[in-house]
Design brief:
The structure is a single chain. The protein is mainly β. Helices cover 12% and strands 35% of the residues. Strands 2-3-16-13-18-11-8-5 form an 8-stranded antiparallel β-sheet. The protein starts with 7 loop residues before the first strand and ends in a 20-residue tail after the last strand.
């Protein structure tokens, strides 16, 4: 029987900052978390997972990924979750909200290019994303091209492709001026779990209108 290493932050992990433009950046720390497999297994087995439905044009569709609760019976699903939260606050001194969990069960699960508009104030945000499990694409593109969907890779200019235990952090105006996605993968692959912590300064002008999860209706 294989005993998996318990989750622990790798203090020697190097943070590389990628400047997308003068005011938008992404930090990437490869191998930030030791014991990623053990944490993933616990979340797969003990988090309560659900599938949401989205209203698109004139009908409901099932969102091709799952959402999980980070707590069970009032306690964190894994004791590492509050430890990771504290480590992120130490590195980025902002008040992150609670962790959110998303699961991509296989290559058919995905999320299209979007911004985290539910934060509303997008001029100055910090969003940390920790990957567990399957290594797969994670793409970014600028919002300047209205016809990006017609381009190769839908206009993606960067692919971070995080592996299990990798941390990426979007900051500055990344949510205002850039979009990110997890595209579908044609080959057979295993599950990927994304842990996300979000913060907004609430400065600037809040965006209006629907976000990725809001119902949308279009008339002819």
């Amino acid at each position: 029987m294989t005993v998996l290493a318990q989750p622990a932050v790798n203090e020697d992990s190097v943070f590389e900052r990628i400047w997308l433009d003068e005011r938008s950046w992404v930090d990437v720390a490869r191998g930030w978390l030791f014991g990623a497999d053990a944490l993933q297994n616990t979340l797969l087995d003990h988090a309560r997972w659900r599938q949401n439905r989205l209203w698109r044009y004139d009908h409901w569709v099932e969102e091709p990924r799952l959402y999980g609760s980070p707590h069970r019976d009032g306690e964190p699903v894994h004791p590492a979750l509050p430890v990771l939260h504290r480590e992120l606050v130490r590195r980025y001194p902002v008040q992150f909200g609670g962790v959110a969990l998303a699961q991509y069960r296989d290559g058919r699960d995905s999320v299209a290019f979007h911004r985290d508009r539910e934060l509303r104030w997008l001029d100055d945000t910090v969003i940390a994303v920790l990957t567990l499990g399957q290594h797969r694409p994670w793409q970014l593109r600028p919002r300047t091209n209205r016809f990006a969907h017609e381009l190769p890779n839908h206009g993606a200019s960067h692919d971070i492709s995080p592996a299990s235990g990798d941390l990426l952090v979007m900051g500055g105006r990344c949510q205002a001026d850039w979009e990110h996605s997890v595209p579908k993968v044609a080959s057979r692959i295993g599950p990927r779990i994304s842990l996300q912590w979000r913060w907004t300064s609430r400065r600037g002008r809040p965006v209006v209108g629907g976000n990725y999860r809001d119902p949308r209706n279009f008339s002819r």
